[in-house]
Amino acid sequence: MSKPKILVARSIFPETIARLQAHFEVESNQDDQSWSKAQLIQKLQGKQGAFTTGSERIDAEVLAACPELKICANMAVGYNNFDVDAMTARGVLATNAPDVLTETTADFGFALLMATARRITESEHFLRAGKWEKWSYDMFAGSDIHGATLGIIGMGRIGQGIARRGAHGFGMKVIYHNRSRLDAQLEAECKASYASKEELLKTADHVVLVVPYSPASHHTIGAAELALMKPTATLVNIARGGIVDDAALAQALRDRRIAAAGLDVFEGEPKVHPALLEVPNVVLTPHIASATIPTRRAMAELAADNLVGFLVQGKPVTPLNPSVLGSK
Q: Could you confirm whether 219 is annotated as catalytic?
């Protein structure tokens, strides 16, 4: 019996490729080329499965052109590269990689918060430019983290991880806003109190965004929301590009309407709004919140688990549209 055919759309660990080859005929992009939509469609011809990384847009046009496709397994917890409704309509399973990156991403979110609040990027650029000639009492004076008020918008697993770090590690007062309030036990574990979005923005010293991207969450933070924040406050986005209006944020940073921002994600990434590159009071990182070797291995293995589980065993691990399974 011939093996199912799959496409691995980006470069991944050789060990993961070897594992997949035990079950599938694998075409892999280990050269890590950037494909156009037309090239992706061409590569998907005759494939039953695709290993994706968040960069490959799977929409109605792609699905219509690839009738043999049965599953797309994302090596990411986010899946805004998937049109899940279109996939469901076509009977194509979508999977993601939750849980395995929660703690690592929460670590990075807190690291980005600390770098932003304490002006680490600004001060390093100053030092590297040879401008450090003397000490002064207010040289790169930032804001405290310990004892400050931490506001988290999006209180899923990663948001809860950041809350625990803030409350238990730094004695922060934690407030959060979410589509639905957490149960009392989870609130107690995180030492977190629910607040309206407006109250959170007005009150928090540091705001961290961990909201899944959807059309409803597009520009959750724009000019109006930034105007509510304290001029001494910081904003950190480890969610997805598009959650923040990057142009409005750049203007707010330029005008010092907020003190600083830390961004790991951007609208239209890997392109970055040029105005963000011109303001000094922002820490910029290239979407690396989950980037540790153990975590990236776990993400790759979970995507592989989903491909093997569905195409070989009929039991995917983390389906996003499980109704597709009932239609098989």
A: no
